[in-house]
Specification:
Layout (H helix, E strand, L loop, with lengths): L10 H26 L9 E13 L8 E10 L4 E11 L5 E13 L6 E16 H6 L1 H6 L6 E15 L6 E11 L8 E13 L4
Antiparallel strand pairs: 1-2, 1-8, 2-3, 3-4, 4-5, 5-6, 6-7, 7-8
Length: 207
Amino acid sequence: MKLPASLRPSGCIVHRGWVIVTVLCLSMLLGASAAQAGILYGGRPLWIGVGGAMGGRVSLEGESPGALMGDLGVGLRLLPIVPEVGLRLGPSGDPAIVLGSFWAGVRVMLPSPPFLRPNFRIAFSHMNELEGAKWSAAPFQGLFGTHPDVRHRPGLETSIGLELMADPKKVLGIWAQATAIVLPDQQGPPFTGLIEIGVSFEAGPNK
């Protein structure tokens, strides 16, 4: 018995899923090797960051960026090379268009003093674009990209960031990062730049 075509996942979605799973598995293997070498980064295992992202597309014609999105990230920071996933949601530079962006990748925690955590991130990114009125009528279809009018833009993103621990127990923090996203697309500028700022907290036993 075959599923209707509308319910079957496309080949590109299946391919991206396998790529993301492979990256996460490799990050865990690399992290396990780092643990055996005794170079753990020393934080709590569960990290959650909430904030905002400002910026937008960058083109040779000087298109004015205007995206303003909410930002949520979750990571397992047991090791210096750790898997993270996250999402962004909000209006684009065109107020009639809403953007929903998912990412999954790895973050490298760089050597630093106890109260500072510089880091580098690389991730697979997938952005969904939909008219605001249609998004409001079917928000979950817009967010997860199942609406028939959603425009899909897969790509890659990378960030350089810094986290400042705001309390002596190193549970609460303030983070910021500069993010560059490459979304190859013949219908629009392929580059997106974001400045992301937010607060974070960690949970679990301290190492």
